[in-house]
Design a protein that fits this description.
Length: 228
């Protein structure tokens, strides 16, 4: 199968997804242009945030309609941040309509991320510090992501930024304390390795937490069953 991944993310997930796919889909190889797509290969591109990802998708579908080589499946991953259920449903309908309007007979998957990529990374219980400093204690006392579902966590009422930024700051503080290294979107480091991914998968197998991450992993497992 030829796969095209379109990510809202511009940095961290773009860097982490290839090693994660290498672990989950070992027979697949990464390519860097649509012309190079062949069986058991994938192309990853950024949509440069929402709503710009919609325009990128429209342009890509137009391109694929005229191309000799096109993907068998397009996978769109985007953050839902603090959106209401109504907005989540509305955005899904927008994406559905983009695919329908294209007229292309092509499979696609919409995989919303609750709340952002860093939310998934907070699900690694092994990275939750056993000894806390004053800074991290503020996060853990508000919401303990080692015990409660990170995808449900919002942010304190007096927090002036978005939920996604709060989750990013929480992750930075958590990993700095547990690994001694600061997580950065441009240099995600440890989160790209297979052991980190295994810990996240263990979380969804042991609990009912992280429903959007579970959907992502189940999709990859379905793909693995189609490998040739």
């Amino acid at each position: 199968m030829k796969l095209y991944f379109l990510l809202e993310d511009q940095k961290s997930f773009m860097k982490v997804l290839p090693p994660w796919l290498e672990k989950c889909l070992p027979k697949y190889k990464q390519v860097y242009t649509a012309d190079d797509l062949s069986d058991n290969s994938y192309l990853i591109e950024s949509g440069y945030g929402y709503p710009n990802i919609r325009n990128v998708l429209i342009n890509k579908l137009n391109m694929f309609s005229e191309a000799d080589t096109r993907p068998d499946c397009i996978v769109v991953l985007y953050d839902v941040d603090d959106w209401s259920e109504g907005k989540i449903s509305g955005v899904r309908s927008v994406f559905d309509n983009i695919f329908i309007s294209s007229g292309l007979d092509i499979d696609y998957r919409l995989l919303p991320i609750s709340r952002c990529f860093e939310t998934w990374l907070l699900g690694n219980r092994e990275m939750f510090p056993k000894e806390m400093d004053e800074n991290f204690r503020k996060y853990a006392s508000f919401y303990d992501v080692s015990k409660d579902d990170p995808e449900i966590m919002m942010c304190p009422e007096d927090y002036e930024e978005t939920v996604s930024i709060y989750h990013y700051s929480y992750l930075q503080c958590m990993l700095k304390l547990s690994t001694g290294r600061k997580y950065r979107k441009g240099s995600p480091g440890i989160v790209a390795n297979g052991e980190y991914l295994d810990s996240l998968i263990n979380r969804i197998e042991d609990t009912k937490d992280m429903d959007s991450f579970r959907g992502f992993i189940l999709f990859l497992r379905d793909l693995k069953g189609l490998e040739v």
